[in-house]
């Protein structure tokens, strides 16, 4: 009955939302100052309970990874996170869940969050409402099958695209949209430039309240991560979980009547 009611709620309200497709972007600043984004994006995220940055008055960092497929480096990333006692969120696709079940279970066992990156990684604002619902629910159902855990609150919009409609629909399905305030071109596996490039890219743009987007297919990230964590801590930064952010900001999933 709940699923029927939720489907009805989506079907009857979706027409009220703008379908204009937006491509997430942020505007980096010098001297490790927090970036900004388009005012219209800020307004949409505030309206639909999403976020892209933490409290910029605190030297806190939220480490997130997008995992569409495995390239052999996630184990090393997890080893580092375990050794350094750093929490992270891994946003995964259906392919990743199907093929890397042991890594998924390890993520949870070691205290990390697994988030929804959709089943097939489509641009959510460019598919219909039923497809959005299938993409998110099929991924969550598989996650529950693999882990026995039914909790999945956070969504990283595939391809960084969104619309008012996709934000509203995903919120109605119980998700908090999590964008990012730091990223660099780290996903091109045939164009890795060495750990120092990754380290310098991160240290140059890190800032208080950063929500970092990294990809664990990157050998550079895996090699740089230990020194990044140590040196940021030496600068007074703390690594926090997205759950810490949610509790501080009283972010709770939308529930349909």
Looking at this protein, list some descriptive labels.
257 residues, alpha/beta, TIM Barrel, five-stranded parallel sheet, two-stranded antiparallel sheet, 10 helices, 9 strands, globular, disordered C terminus, Glyco_hydro/deAcase_b/a-brl, Spore_PdaA, Polysacc_deacetylase_ArnD, hydrolase activity, acting on carbon-nitrogen (but not peptide) bonds
Give the mean pLDDT. 92
Classified by CATH, the class is: Alpha Beta
Q: Roughly how many Å is the radius of gyration?
A: 18 Å
Question: Roughly how many Å apart are the termini?
Answer: 11 Å
**How would you sum up the major sheet?**
5 strands, parallel
Question: Percent helix among the residues?
Answer: 40-55%
Structural class: alpha/beta
Beta content: 5-15%
Total domain count: 1
Give the overall silhouette: globular
The CATH superfamily name is Glycoside hydrolase/deacetylase
How many individual β-strands?
9
Number of helices: 10
Uncertain runs = 1-14, 252-257
Q: Write the element-wise H/E pattern from the N-terminal end onward.
A: HEHEHEHHEHEEHEHEHEH
CATH topology descriptor? TIM Barrel
CATH architecture: Alpha-Beta Barrel
Structural account:
This protein is α/β, with parallel strands linked by helices. The chain has one domain (2-15, 50-248): Alpha-Beta Barrel (TIM Barrel). It has 10 helices and 9 strands. Strands 2, 3, 4, 8 and 9 form a 5-stranded parallel β-sheet that branches. Strand 2 (60-67), helix 3 (74-84) and strand 3 (89-92) form a beta-alpha-beta unit. GO terms for molecular function: hydrolase activity, acting on carbon-nitrogen (but not peptide) bonds. InterPro entries: Glyco_hydro/deAcase_b/a-brl, NODB_dom, Polysacc_deacetylase_ArnD, Spore_PdaA. This is Delta-lactam-biosynthetic de-N-acetylase. Residues 59-240 form the NodB homology domain.
């Amino acid at each position: 009955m709940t699923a029927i009611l939720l489907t009805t709620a989506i079907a009857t309200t979706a027409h009220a939302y703008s379908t204009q497709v937006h491509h997430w972007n942020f505007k980096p600043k010098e001297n490790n100052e927090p970036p900004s984004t388009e005012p219209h994006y800020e307004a949409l995220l505030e309206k639909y309970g999403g976020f892209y940055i933490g409290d910029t008055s605190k030297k806190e960092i939220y480490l997130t990874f997008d995992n569409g497929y495995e390239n052999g480096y996630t184990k090393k990333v997890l080893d580092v996170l375990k050794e350094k006692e750093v929490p992270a969120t891994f946003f995964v696709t259906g392919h990743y869940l199907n093929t890397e079940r042991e890594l998924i279970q390890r993520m949870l066992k070691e205290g990390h969050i697994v988030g929804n990156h959709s089943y097939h990684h489509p641009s959510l604002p460019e598919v219909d409402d039923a497809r959005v619902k299938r993409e998110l629910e099929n991924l969550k159902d598989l996650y529950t099958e693999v882990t026995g855990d039914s909790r999945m609150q956070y969504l990283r919009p595939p391809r960084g695209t969104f619309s008012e409609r996709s934000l509203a629909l995903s919120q109605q399905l119980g998700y908090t949209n999590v964008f990012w305030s730091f990223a660099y071109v780290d996903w091109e596996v045939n164009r890795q430039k060495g750990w120092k490039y990754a380290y310098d890219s991160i240290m140059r743009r890190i800032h208080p309240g950063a929500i970092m987007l990294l990809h664990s297919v990157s050998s550079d990230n895996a090699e740089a991560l230990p020194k990044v964590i140590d040196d940021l801590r030496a600068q007074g930064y703390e690594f926090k979980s997205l759950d810490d952010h949610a509790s501080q900001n009283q972010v709770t999933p939308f529930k349909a009547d």
